[in-house]
């Protein structure tokens, strides 16, 4: 990292910095200034500041309802983009019931135009999400999520004839299920796996790394089931605050499918079996 960036940041003199875990695509550092205050710095090499625009917008939107790191600065330095956030002192466990309540409150927020999508897309790895506004969730989710991921997987040579057969059946099933279900366009976190929340020293939840858009609230909940990390208290807190509609158990696997297809598109053949298994589950709902 070019430490000359520190002089550009709107903080006191930085005395220490060290690399930390920050996700799959960014360089991440913990900074400490001369007063002992810590900060979290993300750097994306060889990109303009626009790389972080959607995350900045998302964090500021979420912060109106739930706890998030504060955006302190973002911009460009040389060929790289950077994002400076407040540092969250965190612990491995906390109040999952409260986290479920907070997510439910977030989902009560509606899109400004009663449609699904967002004013801009976002990029995760090689996947660019098309957030063009749509009046129908079914079309948005199939055309602007599943189909675009399927194309990426095909380009990597990882989409099989067996997958295609199950996929065609799954899409028919999804459309049938959506005929009797009309979700409201809720504000979504968009990437809510167990690596994208933490608990502060008081055990209160903090949401991080959003990929926001407006869609079916079950989308976020489906993703929470893919890799685990959310316990029964989380789901109870959600249900007590904003109960899910009848039949959600049949719809959640389609949102799990989205997330597994994303991982197959980015991380390769190790996810083929999981995608096929989920496709077959969805096809037979």
Number of helices: 8
Please state the overall shape, judged from the principal axes of the Cα atoms: globular
* Portion in strands: 15-25%
Task: Determine the N-to-C terminus distance.
Answer: 50 Å
Identify the strand order in the major beta sheet: 1-2-3-5-4
Tell me, rounded to a whole number, the average pLDDT: 95
Describe the protein's architecture and organization:
The chain has about 280 residues and is of the alpha+beta class. It contains eight helices and eleven strands. Strands 1-2-3-5-4 form a five-stranded antiparallel β-sheet, covered by helices on one side. Strands 6-7 form a two-stranded antiparallel sheet. Helix 7 runs antiparallel to helix 8 (about 270-285). InterPro entries: Fructo-/Ketosamine-3-kinase (IPR016477), Kinase-like_dom_sf (IPR011009). This is Fructosamine kinase. GO terms for molecular function: kinase activity.
Write the layout of secondary structure elements.
Elements: E1 14-19, E2 27-33, E3 38-44, H1 53-62, E4 71-77, E5 80-86, H2 96-107, E6 122-124, E7 127-129, H3 137-155, H4 161-178, E8 186-188, E9 197-199, E10 205-207, E11 213-215, H5 218-224, H6 232-241, H7 248-267, H8 272-283
Antiparallel strand pairs: 1-2, 2-3, 3-5, 4-5, 6-7, 8-11, 9-10
